[in-house]
């Protein structure tokens, strides 16, 4: 059964699968940064009243399943998460800043998809993203 969220004049179930990546798709998310990026996003989500349902950080991209209330737009939410997380990352991990020009950590765009009846499938996909990527790499190598 779905967990419907209630606010003053609305009852909603707004879940989004969001994917974004570091500038130039650099494999910049590793070590301590990869372990702590989840905490950064959880804190930012709490500030805006967004629920981070599921998330996974690969070396070159981030998958998140977010519950965004209808009062917030998806584009503003993703912009907030990307902007504030970049600032916190550069402050906390000075070595990351050397590999990027200016204060641009994330690439300009992002991918977003609404989640309907297949929420469990998307949660499993996010959890098993690393295994799936390795399987695809092995299939490409076997084809060569």
TrEMBL record:
Q: Which residues form the Transposase IS200-like domain?
A: 11-129
Q: Which InterPro entries match?
A: Transposase_17 (IPR002686), Transposase_17_sf (IPR036515)
- Protein name, as recorded: IS200/IS605 family transposase
Organism, scientific name: Microbulbifer echini
Gene name, Swiss-Prot/TrEMBL: tnpA
């Amino acid at each position: 059964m779905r967990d419907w969220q209630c606010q003053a004049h609305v009852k909603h179930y707004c879940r989004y699968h969001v994917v974004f990546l570091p500038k130039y798709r650099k494999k910049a998310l590793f070590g301590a940064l990869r372990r702590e990026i989840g905490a950064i996003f959880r804190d930012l989500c709490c500030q805006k009243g967004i629920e981070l349902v599921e998330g996974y950080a690969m070396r070159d991209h981030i998958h998140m399943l977010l519950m965004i209330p209808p009062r917030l737009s998806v584009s503003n939410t993703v912009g907030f998460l990307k902007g504030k997380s970049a600032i916190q990352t550069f402050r906390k991990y000075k070595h990351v800043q050397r590999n990027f020009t200016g204060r641009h950590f994330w690439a300009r765009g992002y991918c977003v998809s609404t989640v309907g009846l297949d929420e469990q499938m998307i949660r499993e996909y996010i959890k098993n993203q690393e295994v799936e990527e390795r399987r695809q790499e092995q299939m490409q190598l076997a084809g060569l």
